[in-house]
């Protein structure tokens, strides 16, 4: 069994998804243009800009580890728009990142009650199940996400990781190879496929995939970033194989 963790929350593997964008002036300018083009009143426009900024700022705070304030901002938005499934999904992810699993699950369930087609909520809830060892429940949610969006690469990767944790290595490889077809997150996919081959005993394929992963994964000095952690793990796994006989 490998270390089964979550991208973006202090761990390495399963891919989480949050809808808010990074807070920056460009995003606010683009939102202004969009609102003006749709003839939104100045008052409504200002309110929507403020909400967009709050969502962006909440994500930024979560990335910095300031979970309490991020949750407070999203709770403020939910109080004003209690039917917004995306805000519940985002808050659930931040609850999960902060270690409050029961509240995370509650928010994911609420998001899906409000919007049963919210693909990212199925993916995030599946990550919760996987972290709790409920691997079959996780697979069911990944499958639901992929039924709604067959091109959802994160769910293909996560499904592969979960099959690997169940020691269903052939199924894991198949899921990861489907993920490769879409040309996204290739560094992550090579890393996870390499790890699968490694645990399955095909060390030559594992070494080749680890090397491909290191070519694709971004270089980062931020030790809290998921890319840094995954690259660090790939280096360790590759060295285990290269220096096994020494």
Summarize this entry quickly.
The protein is mostly helical. The protein folds into two domains: about 5-185, Serine Threonine Protein Phosphatase 5, Tetratricopeptide repeat (Alpha Horseshoe), CATH 1.25.40.10; about 185-245, no CATH class. The chain is about 70% helix and about 0% strand.
Description:
The chain is an all-alpha fold. The chain folds into two domains: 6-184, Alpha Horseshoe (Serine Threonine Protein Phosphatase 5, Tetratricopeptide repeat), CATH 1.25.40; 185-246, no CATH class. It is built from twelve helices and two strands. α3 (67-80) packs antiparallel against α4 and α10 runs antiparallel to α11. The longest helix is centred in the N-terminal third of the chain and has 22 residues, at 42-63. The two termini are 25 Å apart.
Search tags:
2 strands; 246 residues; two-stranded parallel ribbon; single chain; Serine Threonine Protein Phosphatase 5, Tetratricopeptide repeat; 2 domains; mainly alpha; disordered N terminus
Roughly how much helix do the residues carry, as a percent range?
over 70%
Average per-residue pLDDT, rounded, comes to 85
The domain count comes to 2
Radius of gyration: 19 Å
Please work out how many helical segments DSSP would assign: 12
CATH class of the largest domain: Mainly Alpha
Broad shape: globular
Proportion of β residues? Answer: under 5%
Instruction: Give me the strand/helix succession.
Output: EEHHHHHHHHHHHH
Q: Give start-end ranges of low-pLDDT stretches.
A: 1-12, 20-35
Second CATH tier, the architecture of the largest domain: Alpha Horseshoe
Number of strands: 2
The profile of the biggest β sheet is: 2 strands, parallel
Look at the structure and name the CATH superfamily of the largest domain. Tetratricopeptide repeat domain
For the largest beta sheet, what order do the strands appear in spatially?
A: 1-2
Task: Indicate the CATH topology of the largest domain.
Answer: Serine Threonine Protein Phosphatase 5, Tetratricopeptide repeat
Give the CA-CA distance, first to last residue.
25 Å
Structural class: mainly alpha
